[in-house]
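Quarterly update from the structural biology core.
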Amino acid sequence: MLTWIREKFGTFIISTIIGLIAVVFIFFGVFSPKSTRGLHDGAVAGKVNGDSISLSEFNRAFNQRLELFKSMGGDVKFSEEQIKAFRIREGVFQGLVRRKLLIQEARRQGLLPSDEEVRDRIREIPAFQKDGKFDLVSYQQALEANQYTPNSFERLVRDDLAVQRWEDYFKSRVHVSDEEVRQQFLMNGNKRNIKYVVLSADAGRRGVAVSPKEIENYLKDPAKLNLAKSYFESRKETDFKGRSFEVAKDEVVRSLLSTSKLDEIRVANERMADKIVPLLGAGKANDAKINAMLKASKVEVKTSGWISESNPSIPGMGAGDSKDLLGEVFQKKSTLDPSEGGKAKKYVYGPRVIVAVVIDSQKPDMGKLETERSTVIRQVASRKEREIFESWIKQLSDKAKVEPNEAVVGSEAST
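Predicted structure, tokenized:
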């Protein structure tokens, strides 16, 4: 629970009563035999400096991560293919590794909580109380129902308290100056709305030529034929719905071959981008025309909505895809803002090409600084805490010996 809160909201943004965290650890993601992937009960998910991450610990965290994604995405159920694509097992394992490192360092420095602290915290957990007081029967029944012994649960609470101590420690090291507050406020209030088109490698491959002879030679190779069949199976309910492999095989191979021609994909996307640049503007007059041009590629004109200089994330773009773009979006006189003499521009990232233009701007209102000061202070403090923590945990990670169990975590964890 602590791990995914950090990844979603930042390492130190949320201060949660540790007893509540412990309850969530128990009552969400109870160990499921379906998640063992055929391993025996004594198997581990991996080791960190010789300390084991148990299979049950991994599965609880894994189930929690899936529950989080479901709650964010409308109760979506992830297929095994999606789990691999999103590298969910890797993320879960790495989170548990970091947690284990925190606990090991607390032990090394003599910072583990005492038995009395663990006892007091357990007695504070509402799920174990009756009429406002700790109830031993309720405690024992809850542990038994969730496959915990008193010792294993107390160890969990002790570990949570140790992690909390590190969070408190890093919070205590942060000071926020008035100038930092002012700069953060300016960045929060400096906003842009961007109109853009993302021409992905998948979109560009439709403009790449593949000859019948190339398809024929591809299908003659047994290994490549099997690859084509696997590709078809993964998309038979979407791209190739209602068709057999024999009917769709030429299209399957054309897709595979065109995807491998990255230079040609880039050229095709740049060619299309050059047509879009003079049409993409702040108004909507040409949007329908651009969408018609892109219909076969299943791409359309999008808008980002308001994004701030402090949180400049554009839907559908990774950080690497938007760094140059965002640098120009938020420069003092933007070359992408028509109101300042700018215009749409293309950005090339390998085979992926993006066209963007600023359609609206908003400047910070200094009159609101005092009203928002406390919120901005928390924002700056959280960022600084995270930076200090990440630097420190990286040093621990670089020295650590981490041994993932590939049968549990998957090959993606070691890449």
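Residues 2-176+385-414 form a domain with the Triger factor/SurA peptide-binding fold fold (CATH 1.10.4030.10).
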